Amino acid sequence: MKLWCFGDSNTYGYDPCGFFGGRYAAPWPELLAEKTGFQVINDGKNGRMIPEREYEILQFRRDAERYSTDALIVMLGTNDLLEGATAGEVAARMEAFLNRCDMPQTLLIGPPPMKRGAWVPDDGLVEESKNLSRQYEALAKRRGLPYADAGEWDIELAYDGVHFTEEGHARFAGGLASRLEVVL
């Protein structure tokens, strides 16, 4: 089984405590590969938002052809929220993106909710991140897609309230491996 993990800095493995934005040695896609024996492509990019522009969609399609995977795992939306979009707007962006993906199998993941921290100064953003998971779950049901709520996996977040710690990556990989046993 070959999986394409398409996400943001939490997929990439960004270490917010690292010098000049370092990267953890083993972010969750690498840990997932170890746990499952699957071939896992880590296509996480710091700052990535849900692709909307034509060139972003074309790049996605080129990558899909190049990677030729059995399934897409997509976890995006946190950066969209940080840039001021509401959970409803983010879910609509995700639906528009999924409409253009054309992948054989897609697992949609609701990012774990943010917590108060250096990047999350108020509870409003925390609540929007919780609402995003509910919006994504409804979207997945409407589309008949498998869904995973990372908020159920007790992901430890760093001081900024957004990025996973090393322990958070380990918990995420464990939760996702269990979910994949059910949906793949």
Overview of the structural elements:
Helices cover 47% and strands 14% of the residues. Strands 2-1-3-4-5 form a five-stranded parallel sheet. It has 184 residues and is an alpha/beta fold. It has one domain: SGNH hydrolase (Rossmann fold, 3-Layer(aba) Sandwich), CATH 3.40.50.1110. Strand 4, helix 6 and strand 5 form a beta-alpha-beta unit. The mean pLDDT is 96. The protein has seven helices and five strands; from the N terminus they run E-H-H-E-H-E-H-H-E-H-E-H.
Span between N and C termini? 9 Å
Number of domains: 1
Structural class, by secondary structure, is alpha/beta
Q: Give start-end ranges of low-pLDDT stretches.
A: none
Query: Class, according to the CATH hierarchy?
Result: Alpha Beta
What is the topology?
Layout: E1 2-7, H1 9-12, H2 28-36, E2 39-44, H3 54-67, E3 71-75, H4 78-82, H5 87-101, E4 106-110, H6 123-143, E5 147-149, H7 166-183
Parallel strand pairs: 1-2, 1-3, 3-4, 4-5
Helix pairs in contact: 2-7, 5-6
TL;DR?
The chain is an alpha/beta fold and 184 residues long. The chain has helices spanning 9-12, 28-36, 54-67, 78-82, 87-101, 123-143, 166-183, and strands at 2-7, 39-44, 71-75, 106-110, 147-149.
